[in-house]
Amino acid sequence: MTTTLEVEADADARVELINAATVKSEPIRWIWPGWLARGKLHVIAGAPGTGKTTIGMHLSACVSAGLAFPTGMKPRPGRVLIWSGEDDIADTLAPRLRAAGAAMDFVQFVKGVTEGPDSYAFDPARDVPLLAAALASVDDLALIVIDPLVSAVSGDSHKNAEVRRSLAPLVDLATRMDAALVGITHYSKGTQGREPLERVSGSLAFGALARLVFGTVKQKADDDNVPPRYLLARVKSNIGPDGGGFAYAFEQTRLPDGIEASRVVFGEAVEGSARELLAQAEAVVGDEHTERLDAADWLRRLLAEDGMPAKAVKVEADQSGFAWRTVQRAMKQAGVESAREGFGKDAKYIWRLTEHARQNAPCVPCTPHKKAGAHGAHDGQRPKPWPWSDHVEEGEL
């Protein structure tokens, strides 16, 4: 039995084939060895507030001015192209570039598109061919930054086929220009603890198409007076080693014209897989957040009826398994205020719920215990007498 496949093809279209024996192997052209490669798509993903755009401006400054990357390596200066659909050029992006030490003459922003007498905003999902035409005479472009990368998708950003089709023009442009392409995006909500690559917002194609993917996370310091620390981890690399990363922080700086701008300051290198590094950082934040919530709830219950001297609160906290520092941090969340009463040696600091907190304080049969659980030492059995029976049902807390 013979099967005939009939295909109607455009007379001018043809498939181009290339023999493997004629291909000349070439090395990866690194701008920053192991981290930033020419002609490749890179993705920086992270939660809001972790400074992904500021990191993008830092990389732009390093490339444009030949400044040292976190590893100490200095690149050959090259031109940088930046498009942002979220931040203003004049009051945000340009000041951050200047704060990072960028060679501003080597940086260009994609402002918009003009068509005859009309002008409109640049759309990376539609206007990449026009951008390619504008760059036709540029021969030293080294870095392209797109923020956010999802804006380059014209259809559903959760469908693999549409993401691949939409990103193809940008990736092709980066390949032709021999420039590193960096796209900035977010983590999907509720993905903490999952594989870092699966956390990249939208379709898995974002992470699959990128040759390198980086993840950012915020680490909360133990002391509220210590500035928070952040972590940049190398989630994936198809063209080099993955894992590892760098700690970083942010600082405000005043430019010569008096404008305030933020910049990223990289710290020590860290070792380990991206999942381990991000999980450790988020576990610190998650555990501390949970403990503080528990302590706040405990304080509301403890002070529901009346105020109590701070020293007595500390004794109760110790007996219930709460760290005193955690209890102090939970005061504001619980709606507790401290007031000095008395004079001289008789003076005491009394902790009380504010009026608003008192009105919303839970009516409970027992004081929760950090180690014994929400029902304290009686382990869920109703204490006798049970004066709260009109308010709390069996087993409800």
The average pLDDT value, as a whole number, equals: 84
The radius of gyration over CA amounts to 29 Å
Chain oligomer state: single chain
Q: How much of the residues is beta strand, in percent?
A: 15-25%
Instruction: Please name the fourth-level CATH homologous superfamily of the largest domain.
Output: P-loop containing nucleotide triphosphate hydrolases
**Order of helices and strands, N to C?**
EEEHEHEEEHEHEHEEEEHEHHEEH
Second rung of CATH, namely the architecture of the largest domain: 3-Layer(aba) Sandwich
Q: Which stretches of 5+ consecutive residues score pLDDT under 50?
A: 363-397
For the secondary structure, the number of strands is: 16
Helix content: 25-40%
Largest sheet: 9 strands, mixed
> Looking at CATH, which topology of the largest domain would you report?
Rossmann fold
State the end-to-end distance. Answer: 74 Å
Biggest sheet strand line-up: 5-4-8-9-3-10-11-12-13
Give me the number of helical elements: 9
Kindly provide the name of the CATH class of the largest domain: Alpha Beta
